[in-house]
Amino acid sequence: xxxxxxxxxxxxxxxxxxxxxxxxxxxxxxxxxxxxxxxxxxxxxxxxxxxxxxxxxxxxxxxxxxxxxxxxxxxxxxxxxxxxxxxxxxxxxxxxxxxxxxxxxxxxxxxxxxxxxxxxxxxxxxxxxxxxxxxxxxxxxxxxxxxxxxxxxxxxxxxxxxxxxxxxxxxxxxxxxxxxxxxxxxxxxxxxxxxxxxxxxxxxxxxxxxxxxxxxxxxxxxxxxxxxxxxxxxxxxxxxxxxxxxxxxxxxxxxxxxxxxxxxxxxxxxxxxxxxxxxxxxxxxxxxxxxxxxxxxxxxxxxxxxxxxxxxxxxxxxxxxxxxxxxxxxxxxxxxxxxxxxxxxxxxxxxxxxxxxxxxxxxxxxxxxxxxxxxxxx
Length: 378
Fold this sequence. Notes:
This protein is of the alpha/beta class and 378 residues long. It folds into two domains: 2-187 and 360-377, Glycogen Phosphorylase B (Rossmann fold, 3-Layer(aba) Sandwich); 202-358, 3-Layer(aba) Sandwich (Rossmann fold), CATH 3.40.50. 39% of the residues lie in helices and 16% in strands. The chain is built from twelve helices and 13 strands. It has helices at 15-29, 71-96, 131-134, 141-158, 215-225, 243-253, 268-273, 289-296, 310-313, 328-340, 342-355, 361-377; strands at 2-7, 33-38, 55-58, 100-103, 120-124, 163-166, 181-183, 202-206, 233-237, 259-263, 277-280, 301-304, 320-323. A seven-stranded parallel sheet has the order 3-2-1-4-5-6-7, sandwiched between helices. It has a six-stranded parallel sheet with strand order 10-9-8-11-12-13, with helices on both faces. Strand 8, helix 5 (215-225) and strand 9 (233-237) form a beta-alpha-beta unit. The protein is globular and about 65 Å long. It starts with a strand and ends with a helix.
């Protein structure tokens, strides 16, 4: 059986890129054929290692050339390019004799079910249903209205696929009436051979430095805590357009000496293992893999109970703490509780490591294989 994944590119350090790399590597190691079709790779090297047996195709469309245009010009140029995309992708799928084609909701998502190549089509949603609305501040009323329109369009798109896969049971009620719906979480990206250092005076977070991750609020929370824990540091992993502003905010809050911006790294296992607490202040998520990865290394977490993911992953008071969205005071207090008590960090970390096995690759991927076989047989 041949499984094809469609994505814009694999040179980025994001969670979806990591998940796809792990999936295709698993598939070729278990007797399946796998291929990744990209639109914007442009010869750039992959960020995560991919088995050489995985076939690679780049369609050379380069949607990212429109990134600097105004929204309306970008939309028009993208729309014009899609006819080429559709023709090239259909030709490649026919050449490959694909059995299953998977979209992770990139440019091909709107037209993939129309292609007459013989493969069954799966659509994956890697974020919250209402992300197009929540990705903008409450004050951005017009953008949020367009977000609601995008949600309505998403519903029509998702209904056309042979199977539509979401990441959490928490999101399932939002897709009521979708007979093609399945829930399959993303698998852990690695089997950890390291364990978090519960004695380390080091808090960490990882993610894109964009609005959704709500890093400015994390810095405000850290400013409440840091003065009482002068030997502790907050380490932030990732990059993005907000980096300079975040550095400035750390300076303004007087916490710059206790905030370390690490940039994007490929060896996240070592980053987790060097820390003793993980934190998350996102406005929303899909299924935050960083929380699961942190658990697998034995890191207790303090997280906002945003939609969706943290509620599925963390058992409040057992392997971490869940805090109501935007309750900075309680978040800071839960963080202080862990920072004061090394034995509590150790005990919660052990519970977190056990909980993470729900997301092991050998637990999650058989669910995908079952789905592939079911669709192929039908």
